[in-house]
Amino acid sequence: MARYLLTRAWQSALTLLLSTIVVFVGVRALPGDPALALAGEDRSPEALEAIRRHYGLDQPLPVQFAQYVERMAQGDFGVSIRTGTPVSSMLTTALPVTVELSVLAILIASALGVGAGVLAAVRRGRPAEWLANGLALVGLSVPHFWLGLLAILYLSVATGLFPASGFVPILEDPVDNLHHIILPAVILGTGLAAIIMRQTRSAMLDSLSSDYVRTAKAKGLRPRAVITRHALRNSLIVVVTVVGLQLGGLISGAVVTEQIFGLPGFGKMTIDAVFQRDYPVIQAVVLLTATAYIVINFFVDLLYSVIDPRIRVTGDPA
Amino acid sequence: MTVLTVPMAETTVSVTRRARVLRRLRRNPLAVVSFVVLALAAATALLSPWIAPYSVDQTDFARTFAPPGTPGHVLGTDDLGRDVLSRIMLGARASLQVGLLAVATSLVIGVPLGLAAGYFRAWDAVISRFTDLLLAFPFLIMAVGLAAIRGASLGNAAVAIGIAQIPGVIRVVRSDTLRLKSLDFVAAAVVDGASDLWVLARHILPNATSVILVQATVAIPAAILGEAVLSFLGLGIQPPAPSLGTMLATAQQFAARAPWAAVLPGVVIMGLALAFNVFGDALRDALDPKEDRR
After folding, report:
1. How many domains does chain A have?
2. Confidence (pLDDT) at B5
3. CA distance, residue B6 to nearest chain A CA (Å)
4. Which of residues 155-184 of A touch B (CB under 8 A)?
5. Which of A66, A207, A257, A292 could bridge to A231 as Cys pair (CB 3.0-4.6 Å)?
6. Which residues in chain B have their CB less than 8 angstroms from residue A19's CB?
7. Complex ipTM value
8. What CATH number is attached to the domain comprising A204?
9. pLDDT digits (tens, 9 = 90+) for B80-91
């Protein structure tokens, strides 16, 4: 276990270093003088010179990289070109929205996906399976942003059941917060639900035809107990695996969903930054996404090895 | 001598297997329907510049927001009086273009890396780190970065989606290479003195085609959805070039007046992706060796 943990930690650290290099090189590939990009409104030669000195742009590249890593580690992502506010404080207000949206979406997707997947496996060859399979295929094929647009059009604007846009922080008013975020979370969760459903279904089919389930049936356990106690236990692994694998898709999805529903999160901040050519913000967003991805996947792997002891032995989650 | 006959035996098996796979596909109504839909979509996309009833930029300010069924405009017109049917046809063409371009990008880079990772033990660790690195940049974030550096365009959207799909290709090709490497006919070729490159190109790659094919059929709909998302956000195809994603973005502003413009392009995207996914499922079932025993 300790060895597996160490290997994964070392691999994650290496990936983190590589992705930081990619972002660092990417920033240098931006059109124009980086000092000019960082300067914002004040573009006098003195100001530019001060920025070059502050960010070490007059130093050799390896030194620049070391300084870059140091700044990023301290959370100094620079200042937004458009608003003049530090990028780090923009992130502190935006991130909780995105985290809440994503966590809620994962919960909804797990409930829907595991439920439909178990149903499809247990009712093999019956209408319930066809319906679940069909819905999963549609869930995989539907553009979610379009689903979001339709939801706004028919559930918010037409009936007023849900607010069409906007956000209330959870600490201010939890009920109103949920009212604003539930529809976006459902929309974001549908695609994930489809993937979880398909994986759960095939994992269930595998375990239902396995020897241990046959043994459980043979010793006279009721079907319900066989399903919940033996077969369903595996679905936890499925959910963890899918969430780990689909994290990138989930982050992309959250960006789009926030944009459609006007949620003031990480995604909306990203898209606004692209169109305002707010390079410090873009850079922070890209670096932070990569870091979050790597760190979360590290923990997913740890969780995985806790749930499934085989991985601790072979060290290969496959 | 035996060495020569072993690979040949594998070839004859694969010919009859191909016939079996095709027969299974023909007998699956969902496979047939989805294939016909895809063939029609591909033909429409290829011919759309000639068969679209109007030019995509042709505005008609006297007839904006015409509802579907209006004489001359079967699917109605948009905010500038442009024919929705014509724009959907050319938008679908762009979707398929990006889908194919992205998947081609991911295959060109992913297949050799997957083969190398599965075949050479020393390369496996290096390629795994490369895969991890790619995974750390979700396609939308990659597209954001590319758009910041090079500006938004159809090509950049396809590259961002294609790069994001490389890890998936590497994964399936690697695991199939590992499986094939342990089979007798590969060992026989190695004993016969075949070089690594020869074994990979002549014995492993041809036998890995089925998993690559299945991977491509599920990657294309994902790329089509990705293009729609990027264009919707303004990071993909740039107006006035028609794209189903940008059509939805524009329609959003007029959704109350012209709901059909906000519905139809989405239906087309979903139809395309659904046809690919259904066909991909059918293809995977048909290629599944477990089915051979039936």
Report:
1. 1
2. 42
3. 31
4. 157
5. A207
6. 133, 136-137
7. 0.82
8. 1.10.3720.10
9. 778 888 888 888
